Amino acid sequence: MNDGLRSPRVEEISWGRMVVAGVGTGKDFKLWPGGGRAWDWRETGTEHSPGIQPADVEELLEHGATTVVLSRGMEERLEVQPATLKYLAERGVTVEVAETTEAVELYNELAEHTPVAALIHSTC
Length: 124
What we know:
Structural class: alpha/beta
Radius of gyration: 13 Å
Number of domains: 1
Number of helices: 3
CATH topology: Hypothetical Protein Mth938, Chain: A
Shape: globular
Strand content: 25-35%
CATH architecture: 3-Layer(aba) Sandwich
Largest sheet: 5 strands, mixed
Strand order of the largest sheet: 5-4-8-6-7
CATH superfamily: MTH938-like
């Protein structure tokens, strides 16, 4: 789980592009205490609707996150399935859902003192 590792900071965010400290540059990311990776929606069959599903957040919890930030995209077109919110609540995880730039700001703030993870979508 989380061995006191800090979640990587999102250094830049713009339409279709993110720079994450120690992780790299890309479009969408899964971030957690101690690291992260590109978020490939095809792994779980995620689409804008019905949106983020429980399978998308499982990996975040495996890395010790106690808070999860879910970004809905710059135009908030990415939905979050109710089953995902239930899955996180049943595990005692605090969840924040926000537009992408707000989600990144919140995530970076939480990363200073909380084992936080995030799913960040940088386009619509």
